[in-house]
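Researcher: Next entry in the queue.
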Amino acid sequence: MQIGTAAPSPTELASAKHHFIHHKSIQDNYNVGAFEKDAITLLDDLFKTKDVVIMVGGSGLYVDAVTKGLDYFPKVDPSIRETLNKELETKGLEFLQQQLQNLDPISYKTIALDNPHRVIRALEICIGSHQPYSSFLNKNKDKRRFKTISIGLTADREIIYHRINQRVDIMMQEGLLEEVKTLLPYQDLNALNTVGYKEIFNFLNDDWELDFAISEIKKNTRRFAKRQLTWFRKKEDTLWFDYLTKIEDIVTKINNQIEKK
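Model: Structure for this entry, 261 residues:
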């Protein structure tokens, strides 16, 4: 999954030590909770010899899991999620959204309702625990033994969307179609229910034309980027820089923040 995940190139990997790149099989059951534990274990080790560690990523949920900790949720019967996934296919996302509004009005107003994974996660907790998903949020969490400085890059939305479209075209030129073909036997795995793969699967299964599949990858990636922007712009302590800002200026600002910490 080198191309579809836009993983760092061999040259980039050689320029600085990376962690958690291709460290799991698509058949592994891996989630944000497991990532939190792995990341904190690694950080405890890295901080023995380093004062500063840099985490780079796009998923706000995974970033918060490491920097702030996760909320505790009770274990629920896996069959609940299976049922909800079937309802998503047969009845649609709006049906699940309405169900969430009835069971947990607070979560209905706060989570990303256009993200079926988030809606299903909230619903399975509501149904499995007989308590609102929101009732488990922001309880006592393990305090982190490190301080965090959050950095964000900004650009006009038109530029971001143009870059996304361009990036998808480059992925296709680099062989995304051939990469997805090799994964066709595993298309039902959760790890492959992601942007860039599920659209090509629809083409390979003769459900879509290739041009339409590519346009859907671009559209769904733009939607994902929009959700990212919404998530990160809520972080009041983030240091924002225009993407054209000189690296030296950003480094100076970060060093000033480190001294204050």
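Model: The mean pLDDT is 93.
Researcher: Noted, moving on.
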